[in-house]
Predict the structure of Flagellar assembly factor FliW.
Amino acid sequence: MKIESPRFGTLVVEPSRIIEFPRGLVGLEDCKRFTLFHPEGDNPSYFILQSLDDAELAFHIADPAQFGFAHEITLSDEEAADLQLTDSDRDIANPVAHLVVVVMLSKDGPNQPVRANLNAPLIINLDTRRGLQHVFARLDYKVAPV
């Protein structure tokens, strides 16, 4: 599949590189198919999540640990089904290695700092290539001194 991204040019996406978000993203429920890529160079600090349904839609995403943050997320049965998790995947004693949690990044202007949306992380099952956006009704966190 080819997509003409206004920001990144022509992208060739193999079917095995497509990630499906069955419910889309908040406010973008019609965009369900995405692919991930990263900028050139070793050890990128962020990735690009490019929509395959709307070529103009792409997000910078990163591991929340880069911002000193770790999510503890309890998935609902519906979310587990969306990610195609098995019962053994949901065993809290055995964290699921093929699930990744990332946050979307934004910047209000060229001289503004990068912000991470910690309240609505993305969860991606790398085995099934399925993802979802988990929106917290309330985010409880503690800030520890560095």
The longest strand covers residues 99-106.
